[in-house]
């Protein structure tokens, strides 16, 4: 899991202007955290996986109110054992304002009980312009939408930000978070920026947990979000661009079918079928991490038939685990399979449906101006070839519309980390200290201006 899930965190912050009728504000915990390492678990007489470690406590949060501190290890929340990040995320996602909260923590080796009441999430603040909260009807419920609008009446060109695969909230962004800096940079250039939670995330109402939905449900929600963006009065509908980050770069051409934007920008994304990308992780990404070559080869010989049976032939992880002990071990140790049917923290059908998407065809059919950017130190995207090929596909069917750019010394999170080799040597704490590479704002702005409809 370490090589597949580089980082997960919960960042929640701030205040603003709200337009919403059906969605109430949920409670929030307000921390950034990480799984407890095996070494630290042993030091505290815990059997791994056991607990999550607090890295940051946000001012004004529930965590601050109950006196949670940096370096605390959370082992129980409301009576439920916390073995890893997902356990805490699941509980925190259902916090309601005013309800009682109890936590059992380890602090300097001592077990301490903390308690208090859940505080409502504040609304996000804006450095530039204003933040407008809205809602999107979807299925039998509602999804939270958020627009960062520049000062003035508009109409403004707009960027629809499409996030990666996790079910983490993209509301209440800390000012230091790279996505927040990305959004503020675009607003400063005069663009409105639209984002939306995934179904079941954040303030979403009457929708299933994001981790239980399939890929079609997620893509259809983004399509509805794109339609919603086009209806906003201060948006220049002639000049809407999609920005797909990571797995959002797969969503971008898919949601463009039949309703094309003016252009698409992708960063750190994937073009290959999901089976092939996963095999690249097991072969090439693990080489980057310095794994033993024979171990890589032996693991790959297990993963290739496993992924084929699971993703291509649509067998369930449960039946595959029962059929072969090597499969069972690989599913749990490398793919995070659990009793809820999750693979890499999404329902197993999510990845099966993603596998079926013909992304070459999607890029051909999108047929719009396309900028594919690869960060030189992007370990998750592995190498630049996929991004170069996206530009080549677009140009093959729509000459002159595709462009590839390399963003030097920049990682998957758009942090300026140095070369790939330098990035690989960074500790988690060292990586967090690296700055957002604001050059991407100028690159995107220049390209969008070149492709504006006037």
List keywords for this structure.
16 helices, Rossmann fold, 2 domains, alpha/beta, 454 residues, 6-stranded antiparallel beta sheet
Biggest sheet statistics: 9 strands, mixed
Rg, Cα atoms, Å: 22 Å
Gross morphology:
globular
Strand order of the largest sheet: 1-10-11-13-12-14-15-18-19
Question: Given this structure, which CATH class of the largest domain is correct?
Answer: Alpha Beta
Number of DSSP helices? 16
Could you tell me how far the N terminus lies from the C terminus, measured between alpha carbons in angstroms? 48 Å
The CATH superfamily label of the largest domain reads: Alpha/Beta hydrolase fold, catalytic domain
Strand-residue fraction? 15-25%
Describe the secondary-structure layout.
Blueprint: E1 17-18, E2 27-28, E3 31-35, H1 38-43, E4 52-57, H2 62-65, E5 73-77, E6 80-81, H3 85-92, E7 100-107, E8 110-117, E9 119-120, E10 130-138, E11 141-149, E12 156-162, H4 178-188, E13 192-196, H5 215-230, E14 235-245, H6 248-255, E15 263-267, H7 274-288, H8 293-312, H9 317-323, H10 325-333, E16 342-343, E17 346-347, H11 348-355, H12 359-366, E18 369-375, H13 385-397, E19 402-407, H14 420-424, H15 428-432, H16 439-450
Parallel strand pairs: 1-10, 12-13, 12-14, 14-15, 15-18, 18-19
Antiparallel strand pairs: 2-9, 3-4, 4-5, 5-6, 5-7, 7-8, 10-11, 11-13, 16-17
Helix pairs in contact: 7-8, 9-10
């Amino acid at each position: 899991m370490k090589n597949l899930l580089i980082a997960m965190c919960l960042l929640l912050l701030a205040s603003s202007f709200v337009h919403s009728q059906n969605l109430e504000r949920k409670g929030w915990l307000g921390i950034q955290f990480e799984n407890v390492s095996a070494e630290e678990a042993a030091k505290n007489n815990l059997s791994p996986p056991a607990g999550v470690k607090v890295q940051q406590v946000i001012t004004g949060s529930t965590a601050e109110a109950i006196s949670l501190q940096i370096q605390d290890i959370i082992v129980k929340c409301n009576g439920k054992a916390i073995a890893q990040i997902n356990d805490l995320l699941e509980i925190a996602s259902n916090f309601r304002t005013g309800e009682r909260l109890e936590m059992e923590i380890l602090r300097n080796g001592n077990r301490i009980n903390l308690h208090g009441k859940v505080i409502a999430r504040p609304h996000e603040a804006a450095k530039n312009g204003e933040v407008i909260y809205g809602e999107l009807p979807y299925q039998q419920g509602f999804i939270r939408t958020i627009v960062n609008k520049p000062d003035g009446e508009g109409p403004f060109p707009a960027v629809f930000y499409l996030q990666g695969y996790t079910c983490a909230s993209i509301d209440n962004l800390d000012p230091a978070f790279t996505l927040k800096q990305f959004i503020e940079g675009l607003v400063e250039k005069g663009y409105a920026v639209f984002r939306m939670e995934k179904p079941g995330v954040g303030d979403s109402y009457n929708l299933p947990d994001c981790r239980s939905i399939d890929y079609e449900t997620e893509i259809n929600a983004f399509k509805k979000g794109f339609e919603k963006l086009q209806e906003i009065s201060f948006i220049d509908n002639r000049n809407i661009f999609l920005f797909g980050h990571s797995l959002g770069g797969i969503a971008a051409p898919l949601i463009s079918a039949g309703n094309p934007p003016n252009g698409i920008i992708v960063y750190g994304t994937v073009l290959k079928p999901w089976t092939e990308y996963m095999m690249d992780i097991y072969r090439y990404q693990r080489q980057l991490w310095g794994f033993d070559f024979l171990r890589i080869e032996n693991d790959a010989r297990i993963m290739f038939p496993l992924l084929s049976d699971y993703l291509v032939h649509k067998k369930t992880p449960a039946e595959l685990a029962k059929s072969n002990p090597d499969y069972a071990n690989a599913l749990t140790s490398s793919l995070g399979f659990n009793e809820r049917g999750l693979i890499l923290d999404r329902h197993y059908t999510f990845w099966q449906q993603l596998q079926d998407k013909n992304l070459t065809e999607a890029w051909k059919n999108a047929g719009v101006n396309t900028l594919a950017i690869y960060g030189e130190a992007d370990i998750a995207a592995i190498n630049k070839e996929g991004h170069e090929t996206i530009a080549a596909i677009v140009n093959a069917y729509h000459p002159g519309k595709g462009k590839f750019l390399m963003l030097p010394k920049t990682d998957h999170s758009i942090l300026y980390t140095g070369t790939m080799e330098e990035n690989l040597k960074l500790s988690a704490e060292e990586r967090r200290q690296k700055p957002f590479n604001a050059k991407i704002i100028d690159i995107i702005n220049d390209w969008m201006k070149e492709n504006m409809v006037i």
